[in-house]
Amino acid sequence: MTRKTTIASMLLLCALAAAAVSCGSGDGTTISTDTAPTSGDAAETAAETTVSTDDRPALNLPEKDFNGESLRILGYETGVDCIKQYDFYYDEASAGELVNDAIHKRNMLIEERYNCVIEVTNDKTPKVTARNSITAGSDDFDIMELYINDAMSMAMEGMFLNWYDLDYISMDESWWDQAIQRDLAIYDRIYVMTGDISVYDEELNYCVYFNKQVATNNDIPDVYEMARNKTWTMDVMYELGKSVAKDLNGDGVRDENDQFGLLSDSGMMFLFYFTCGNNFVTLDENGEPYFTVESERTFDVCDSLVEFFSDTDTMLWASKCSNTWTTLDKVFMENRNLFRPGSIYDIVYYRNMEHDFGILPYPLFDEQQEDYYHLIATHVCPGICVPTTNAKLDMTSYLLEALAYESRDTVTEAYYDLNLYTKMARDDESGDMLDIIFSTKRYDLGFVFDWGSLRSSLETLVTSGKSFSTVWESKEKSAQKAMEETMEFYRSNDN
Ligand SMILES: [Ca+2]
Ligand SMILES: [Ca+2]
Question: CB 3.0–4.6 Å: which of 11, 131, 265, 431 could bond 318 by disulfide?
Fold first, then answer.
C-alpha cells in the first residue's frame, strides 16, 4: 500500500462520513478481522486519480550552504522503555531494514544539498544528559529528543525555545503535527514538536489487536466494518470478548491457562478514560486551559469502565499473570484471546505469530461519541526540543524544516507503508484502521503536566473501589493549584 492509497482511504472515509451526514508504563496492545471495501470502490478510484505525487506546497527555503557544519542531535538509545526505532540515527549494522535505510537516504539528501553533517548521540538517559548540559550553559546539542511530558516540565524551567519563534519553521504545514499544537499550545507557545520528522508519534499511539483465528472459531462478525461505521463501541468489544471467554481446563478457576476476550490491566483504565472521548483539560479560544473532568458523562463513563475492568472472567490482567505483559502476549499468540488493547509498537511482538491478526481503533464509548480518540503516550513518547543553549539557531531551524519536509516520502513512508501496512499487519484493512487511528490522535495538558495526579487516580480506580466523582472532589483543589502554578510561567515569561 502506498502513501497515495493512504490518502485515498482517508478521502474515502471523509466521503463516507459526509454521506452519513456529518463528517505505559507497562502497556498493552490488540487485533481484528475481515473483509473488503464495497461501496467505496468508486470513490477510492476517483481519489486515486486526483491525488498527485506531492499534494504539499514546495519546501519554501532559500538556498544555503552550511560549510560542513554539524547538526548535533541528542536522542534515546533503542531498548530503553518503549523505544524501538530511531528518527535520525542510521545504524550501519541494520542496513537493509526499511526505516533505517530511509533514514540514511533522507540524511544523505539533506547533507549533500546543504553541505552539513547530521550527528546523532544515542543516550540511555537523554533527560539527565540534556539537563546537565543546559544547566551548565554548555552548547553540546542543537536539538534534543525527550519524552514530551519531561520536555514540557523542563520547558517550565526555561530550558527550551518556543517553536513559534523559530525562523524557517512552517508550523501550519502538514509535515508538522497539528494535533499537538491544537491540544498543548497554551498562549500559542509550544516547546516540543513532532510530525513527519518523527516515527514516535505513531509508535506511541494505541491500537486494539485482534486474533483472527479466535474470531473465526467463534463466528465473530466483521469488526472492521463496525469500526468504519462507528458502531465499534465499548459494549460491542465487551460483549464479543465475553462470548469467547471460557475456563479452558475446567478447573473452576480463571487464570492465564484459560481463554479470554480481553487482555489488559486495571492500571490501563486511564487510557480508556481518554479513548472513550474524555479529556482532563481543554484549551479555550484564548489558549487558556481549563479542567473538563467534572461532568455526568465522564463520571458515567468511569463507572462503566470500572465494571468493564472488574469482569476478570472476561479480561485477564497483566498484574495477575506470572510474567505480566509477556504472559498476555503469549496468551494472545496461542489463540486464547480475542482482543488485546495495546500500543502500536507492540506490533513487532506479533510479527512471527503463526495465525493472522488485525488492528482496530480503540472503541468509542457509545455511538453518540463523535469520533475515535487516540491519546499519544506522551509519558514515553519522545518529541523534539530546541535548547536555549543552542548557538546555531538559524541553521537548526532551517535544517529542521528541511528534514521534516523530506521525511514524509522517506522515513514516514517507510514506517507506514512498508513496516506497518504490508510487512506486519498482514491485511489491507489494518492499514485503513491505522489511518483512522493516526488521524484521531490527541494530546492532553492534564496528562502532560500531571496536574492533580489524575492519571494515577485512574490507574487505581478499579482496585480502590472509589467512584471517580469522589476522587475528583478530593483532587480538584490541588489540581487547580498545580495548573495555576504552571500558568504562572506562561503569564510571566514571553518566550
Ligand atoms: Ca510521525
Ligand atoms: Ca481454568
Answer: 265
- What's the domain count of the chain? 2
DSSP state of 160: B
Ligand that comes closest to the CA of residue 246:
2
Taking the centre of ligand 1 as the mean of its atom positions, its distance from the CA of residue 436, in whole angstroms, is 14
Please check whether residue 342 is in contact with residue 27, taking contact to mean a CB–CB distance below 8 angstroms: yes
CA angle 421, 378, 451 (to 5 degrees): 150
Residue-level pLDDT at 3: 38
Per the structure, the complete domain to which residue 246 belongs is given by 205-377+444-492
What single-letter amino acid sits at 390?
N
> Do residue 366 and residue 475 come from a single domain?
yes
State whether 237 and 173 are in the same domain: no
Who has greater pLDDT, 18 or 380? 380
The helix/strand/coil state of 353 is coil
Determine, yes or no, domain membership for 55: no
The rounded Å distance from CA 241 to ligand 1 centre is 32
Which residue reads 476476550 in cell numbers?
261
Q: Is residue 192 part of a domain?
A: yes
Condensed to tens digits (0 to 9), the pLDDT of residues 138-164 reads 999 999 999 999 999 999 999 999 999
- CA of 257 relative to ligand 2 center, distance in Å: 6
| pLDDT above 60 (res 179) | yes
Proximal ligand: closest to the CA of 178: 1
* Ligand lying closest to the C-alpha of residue 381: 1
What are 307-332's pLDDT values in tens digits? 999 999 999 999 999 999 999 999 99
**Average pLDDT, integer, range 79-98:** 94
Q: CATH no. for residue 367? A: 3.40.190.10
* Assigned domain for 22 exists: no
